[in-house]
Amino acid sequence: MKKGDRVLIDTMVIIEAHRISCWNGLRAFYSLETVEPCIIECATGDRRRKEYVPVDGEKVRAEICVHTITEAMRIALLVRDPKSARLDPGERDLLAFALSLEAAWLLCDPDKAAILSAHRLDYLDRVVALEEMALAAGLRKEGYAMNHTKRWLGEFKTKVQLGMV
Question: What is the distance between the alpha carbons of residues 165 and 2, in angstroms, rounded to a whole number?
């Protein structure tokens, strides 16, 4: 990964980056992009939960590129990966958007179902961990939730490739 790389990020990545305070550093280093449902998901949630992380959806919308997905893009995803119908709206739209891209991009999404869909779409090599992104950007933060670590993603990708999931 290098400065300026185009990285598609999902809700959990936005929230975790805010939680560990590396959001601004990531924005400065990468070209971060997401889709409308991810912004909506960031701004909602049970605020009474102890681990709730407040994220200002409108501020995020102003800071990164947010794409609106068409029904035709969603259908194209379903044709290529019928199992993607089980994804939540943010992950579904993020992968539908990815299918429309010709230029190089990476995907940062720690959701197992989204990673499995990326594998079925032959995009597994494009999936990266938040920790890996932060390290490449020179942000040596610690304390990532397990599913945002390079180690967790590497182990899960191996299981996917071996057909163990």
Answer: 31
> Burial level of 32, CB count in 10 A (0-12/13-18/19+)?
buried
CATH 3.40.50 fits 6-161, yes or no: yes
Tens digit of each residue's pLDDT (9 = 90 or more) over 82-94: 999 999 999 999 9
- Tell me the pTM: 0.94
On whether the CB atoms of residues 59 and 42 are closer than 8 A, the answer is: no
d(CA 25, CA 59) in angstroms, rounded, equals 15
Q: What is the distance, to the nearest Å, from the Cα of residue 4 to the centroid of all Cα atoms in its chain?
A: 16
pLDDT band at 133 (very low <50, low <70, confident <90, very high): very high
Question: Contact, 9 vs 34, CB < 8 A?
Answer: yes
CA distance linking residue 118 with residue 69, whole number of Å: 18
Six token digits for residue 109: 């999404």
For the chain, the structural domain boundaries read 6-161
Alpha-carbon gap, residue 130 to 16, rounded angstroms: 8
